[in-house]
Design a protein that fits this description.
The chain is α+β, with helices and mostly antiparallel strands. The protein contains seven helices and eight strands; from the N terminus they run αββββαβααβαββαα. It is globular, with a radius of gyration of 17 Å. Bound molecules: zinc ion.
């Protein structure tokens, strides 16, 4: 998951990341308009966590890098998704310290900030405890690459990261160390749940939705017996096509 780990760019953070959404592209100064746009984007994306049944109570969070500003915008801690507004989002520096906003940032802010500090191509980070992906994390078992859509989006198996306690940089370190040796934009942190990254926050949300979807499907298939893996060569071809050809260009 380092820039350049995949020749075609990864699903998460291709080095050539094209501008996407209000948070993309421009290396502008952190003017009010830019931060306001990122606040709106991050607020709106939390609704996708709810719509896709990825979260219980207040347990998931989305953040986005403010391009060129050394800042990130993240969910406030412990606030219901229905009550989120762009103004309630919290602006932090990349050490995780709040620089703007009235509320305390998510308790996962340190992990998000660590990822932004160490993975410059990442523009968005998402964390949930979505049921099936978290069940794989509880088992400490990577999701094998047995479907074309896993090859497309994740470029191989979806890896497991180390067990880490909240409170310091352990979670962030575990995420970065695991993703650096993978093309996957998702890591299943052991006994915890999935963290996903993307070139922007929307891409990270997409990865969070898809990791839950494939975790569910592969779990069901797994009940019925052995799962034949895709060939490496086919995984590479599928991943390259999906990352470089598929969709609107
Ligand atoms: Zn968590």
């Amino acid at each position: 998951m380092t820039a350049g780990a995949s020749p075609g760019g990864t699903g998460a953070a291709g080095a050539a990341g094209s501008p996407a959404g209000p948070a993309g592209g421009a290396a502008a100064a952190p003017d009010g308009d830019l931060i306001a746009a990122v606040r709106r984007e991050v607020c709106a994306l939390h609704a996708e966590l709810v719509r896709n049944n990825l979260v219980a109570w207040t347990s998931g969070n989305v953040s986005a890098r403010v391009p060129g500003a050394g800042l990130m915008v993240i969910k406030p801690s412990g606030v219901s998704y229905d009550d989120l507004t762009p103004e309630s989002m919290v602006v932090c520096d990349l050490s995780g310290r709040r620089t703007d906003g009235r509320l305390s940032p998510s308790s996962d802010t340190a992990a998000h900030a660590y990822v932004y500090r160490h993975m410059p191509a990442v523009g968005g980070v998402v964390h949930t405890h979505s049921t099936y992906a978290t069940a794989w994390a509880a088992r400490g078992e990577p999701i094998p690459c047995v479907l074309t859509m896993i090859a497309d989006e994740f470029g191989g198996e979806i890896p497991v990261g180390p067990f880490a306690l909240i409170g310091d940089d352990s979670i962030g370190q575990g995420i970065v160390e695991t993703l650096r040796t993978s093309r996957s934009p998702a890591v299943l942190m052991r006994n915890h749940g999935p963290f996903t990254v993307g070139k922007d926050a929307r891409a990270a949300v997409k990865a969070a939705v898809l990791v839950e979807d494939v975790a569910r499907t592969v779990h069901i298939a797994h009940q019925l017996g052995e799962l034949p893996a895709l060939r490496r060569e086919d995984i590479d071809r599928l991943h390259h096509r999906y990352q470089n050809v598929y969709g609107q260009r």
